[in-house]
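Practice problem: predict the structure.
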Amino acid sequence: MDHDELNANIAEKKMRGTEGIQFDEVEKYRRSSYPFATFILTLIGVSLSSRKVRGGIGLQIGAGILLSFTYILFMQVSTTFATNGNFPAIIAVWIPNFVYAIIAIVLLRSAPK
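Answer:
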């Protein structure tokens, strides 16, 4: 479904009162948040890779993989809260981006110029 079809499907399900609308709402907001996630994770990767230390780059690669893994885990946990109906979908999808954007800004500011 494209964006307009998804919005029409959500509106139709709301009008009918059917269950399972949370999945569609999460998908709707996920489609707009993933491009920002790519940008945020790229900023984290650039800030980590700009550090030159003795002994190699293993620590930076490990930190980058760890941050990427925790982002994906955080995104899955928050969307699970949204699909179970305990959390609004827009907040559940966008909160990992806000948290990791703050982490990216802190890492970027502390990165050597």
